[in-house]
Automatic annotation (TrEMBL):
UniProt keyword Lipid metabolism present: no
Lineage, opening ranks: Eukaryota, Viridiplantae, Streptophyta, Embryophyta, Tracheophyta
Protein's recorded name: Translocon-associated subunit beta
Gene Ontology cellular component terms for the protein in this record: endoplasmic reticulum
N-terminal signal peptide: 1-22
Keywords: Membrane, Signal, Transmembrane, Transmembrane helix
Record carries keyword Iron-sulfur: no
Organism field: Olea europaea subsp. europaea
Pfam name, any one: TRAP_beta
Length: 193
């Protein structure tokens, strides 16, 4: 009796391990959602959305569908593209990208939902689901202080300041080494007499 229980435990562990290994050999979808707000001169605001879908698994995902339907039509108008799309397949180790643009109609704080990605795995009958990364809350059409005139110069100085100082020190050093001093020139002329 004890031998039978031992074998049944061994077979149960073997079954669980094999199912875990089999599932890790399938597609593994990772999706990253990015949003960029751009204030237009007309006073409206453009929302650029892009979703990158990676297959980090070992198998191909089929019938891949992206649905990013969390954009309320009361707040946004679709300017270009669609909030949903589909692809026939996503090979292992590859990337798919989708982007669209919206225009904001209302001043609000918007909390967006992650995009939903569905796909098929050949070994499973049911559709598999993955979610994109969430986005930070968007303060749409908010009152922002005007950008200062020399803000671009400050950004350049912060970005390239250390490089400029090192280059100027090297140039100064080369100048000092390469140019003769007046005192050594005067000594040389005294020795010739």
């Amino acid at each position: 009796m004890a031998g039978w229980i031992g074998w049944s435990c061994f077979l149960a562990i073997l079954f669980l391990a094999s199912s875990t290994i089999a599932s890790s050999e399938g597609p593994f979808i990772v999706a990253h959602k990015k949003v960029k707000l751009t204030r237009l001169k007309s006073g409206s605001e453009r929302v650029s959305v892009s979703v990158d879908i990676y297959n980090q698994g070992y198998a191909t995902a089929y019938d891949v569908t992206l649905n990013d339907g969390g954009w309320t039509l009361d707040i946004f108008d679709i300017v270009s593209g669609n909030t949903s799309t589909s692809w026939e397949r996503l090979e292992s180790g590859t990337l798919l990208s989708h982007s669209f643009e919206l225009e904001a109609k209302t001043k609000t704080m918007f909390y967006g939902a992650p995009a939903v990605i569905t796909f098929r795995v050949p070994t499973k009958a049911a559709l598999q689901e993955a979610y994109s990364t969430p986005i930070l809350p968007l303060d749409i059409l908010s009152d922002r202080p005007p950008e200062k005139k020399f803000e671009w110069a400050k950004k350049l100085l912060v970005k390239y300041g250390p490089l400029i100082s090192v280059v100027s020190m090297v140039v100064l050093f080369v100048y000092l080494v390469a140019t003769p001093s007046k005192s050594s020139g005067a000594k040389g002329s005294k020795k010739k007499r």
